[in-house]
Amino acid sequence: MSRFLRNKTRRGVLAGVLVAAVLPIGLTASAAQGPGGAKPAPNAADAKTKTTTSTTAGSISMPANVVTSGSPSLGPAGAIAAKPYMGWSSYSMQVYSNDGGNWINEAQITAQSDAMHKKLQPYGFDRINIDAAWNGGTDEYGRPVPSTKLYPKGLPALIKHIHDNGQKVGIYSIPGISKAVLDANYPVYGAPECRTGNLAKQPLQQGDYWGFGYRVDMDNPCAQKYIDSIVDLMASWGVDFLKFDSVTPGSGKNDLSLDARDEVKGWSQALARHKIWLELSWALDINYADYWKSVANGWRVEWDVECYCPGEALTAWPNINRLFPKAADWWRHAGPGGWNDFDSLNVGNGTMDGLTKDERRTAATLWAVSAAPFYIGNDMTKLDQYGVELLTNPEVIAVNQAGRPAQPVSTKSNKQVWYSLNADSSYTVALFNLGTTEADMTAKFSDLGLDGSATVRDLWARRDLGQYNGSYTAAVVPPHGVRLFKVTPAKKAAIRVNDDDLRVAYDGVWTRNNNNEVPAVSEPLTVNVTDTGTQTPPVAGNGGTRTVELNNDNSGIVYTGSWSRSTGRGLGDYQDDVQYTETNGDAFSYSFVGNGVDYITEKDPSQGEVEIYVDGALKATVDTHADSRSAQQTVFSISDLPNGSHTIRGVKKSGQFMLVDKLVIRQESLLNPGTASFDKQAQADVTTEIARDPGELASVANAGKLLVKGTDYTVAGKVVTIKKEYLATQPVGSTKLDFSFKGDYRDDVHAATADGASLTFAFKGVSVDWVTALAPDQGNADVFIDGKLVTRVNLHSDARLTTQPVFSKTGLTDGNHTLKIVKVSGDVLRNDQLRYTLAK
């Protein structure tokens, strides 16, 4: 069985204990059958018959602070979710111990709480989360109750001990309702008119990934009352946190064949009445990110971090490495009230983590700069000194708790610079070397949005490094290693802020991109240079679309995991080579500008399934298995993307091998024609027409060397003429002239269509500029500073223009200011870039 399948099975075994807890009297867990048929059997020691605790209706005390809903912006937990939480989860050790259903016993959890209190709590760790298998039966209302075997003194007594240590407590549940609870037809506590037998959606539908239960009919008012009764019971025990697992779309089911969104909303509403944190799991579908943000305080973005190798290790480097592309997809969805969950940070003990020291620090850095919930999965009674140092560095913790998720400058290589702009105008910068060899790595300040010099501080070493102008280079970053810095701009520096930065607040309905953006792009004009004396006739137009073929060894394709290249195979591959891997979870990714992409590879008996993601969303699971080998097969194709910036990622799911042979990109052609001919003995200028406004043509270059405008080429309207005098200097053969076009800042914009929609930006400085798009579909916008109307800006233009300075205000007093922009007219208002200058 592959590790991937062991992962799903073992998780199902532990979750299956939840089913054992809700069986009626006389049945065992082995008799339970979910709608999906047979499932992994729970641990026999936990497959108990129904039990009833001494908790009765009369003994349940409702807390005094019950409210009708959580804060709209901070989720069900309210203000406490303004920062990512710090704590511990039991699941990694449940897997490692290979006795998951019994490991979370009273003595073990007590020991973990006491260890946290002594070692980590002074640094902010204060959550003890008990994962699957905590429960042991139901009460007479069909509500799960704690296992008396695991907690002989009662779970409330254990929770009291944890609370007395100054910590909070979390437990676990999954969507759906079991067949046993349906058949038992229990009364719903507090709603005698409701019975559990009427709560399943009809016809019966699978409720969770494993098929343990049925989907709940949330259109039935009794369903919400039943969920409320369960949450009220948990709250009476003192529960502060709920992990809700197997949530769909996600959890390996993104096609809406399973959909738990309505149940998640019901649980969210119930938990908000008690300010209980709601964390969703696992591998949530990014297509529904806005929905998850509206109902939860956190969401797992990927599969489990555990390696599922009991007694050997908690995790492995590939499980950390695969999080980087997920973090690049999800970063802009996190913020106060809801956080991107990367699963347990298992870096506390080198003898069991499964990572090198460099990899442990890299993982801790990724969690910190991503503002991911900073919770560990180690046995806290056995933390080593290095692990404690990683987990208690106050400057690294401050980065995490600042709640400013980092983004990559680029993911086009394994040497990646990630950064975030902080509220005080400083930057957090991480240099990740995801490659296999050491390397010097440079952070260019301009890539961060900083124009000027800055001081640099090493946060892991807690040491100031000095002031640098324009960039900083870290020497010899080890493979799988990292450097983490705070970059503080010097006086008079200017800071550029992109439209998607968390410091920009939007009011009204705004969307990012959605075909409102114009990306920067380059396109070659290929000139066939001859020396025959025969003038070649003009080339016909290209119909508005061009294709770009990329071999598997293209430097822009990023391979994550253990990939190798096989050449000279003689099997019909494109350019006679392929890239291949044998490890499930390994991936390739490629970022491009265009409107379509094809993944072309070999199909073969040794190959299996590949998950294809576009812009972070799972688009298809393609099967590359075949009874016989066939080369250059198009296994995935998409052609209806908005013309803009996109990323395709393929992840190995099964089979012995996964191969990459070629990618084909389709782009909107900006040159007509895209090819031309020039003969040295019959010289004539070459012309092409550009599809963008001539002011958007940034440059023309040959092998990286810029042509001189006015000398080597001229622009008249939309016609670009390459002068014959320049072409005469080119050698016979194919000359590629790269036409580069400007784009929106970082290739994206935010846009609103309703008049009155607005954005605000708070800054400390002496001047501020607004740089954005002009377009035929835009109208006027009012600009306010510190609450006073300064001017009305006309954003209309006959052509779509990028990065246009439309507003500037200088001479502000050195202090805190607020810029506000309000849509007045036009079909669309676009926001692209804000810029402010620090005091001298």
From TrEMBL:
Q: Which UniProt keywords apply?
A: Carbohydrate metabolism, Cellulose degradation, Disulfide bond, Glycosidase, Hydrolase, Polysaccharide degradation, Signal
Q: Which SUPFAM superfamilies match?
A: (Trans)glycosidases, E set domains, Glycosyl hydrolase domain
Indicate, by first and last residue, each region the UniProt record lists as having compositional bias (Low complexity): 32-59
Can the keyword Membrane be found in this entry's annotation? no
Q: What domain of life does the native source organism fall in? A: Bacteria
Task: Respond yes or no to whether keyword Signal is given for this record.
Answer: yes
**Annotated protein name in UniProt:** Alpha-galactosidase
Residue ranges of the Alpha galactosidase C-terminal domain? 414-487
Q: Which InterPro entries match?
A: Aldolase_TIM, Carbo-bd_X2, GH, Glyco_hydro_27, Glyco_hydro_b, Ig_E-set, Melibiase_C
Residue ranges the record marks as coiled coil: none
Family, per entry: Belongs to the glycosyl hydrolase 27 family.
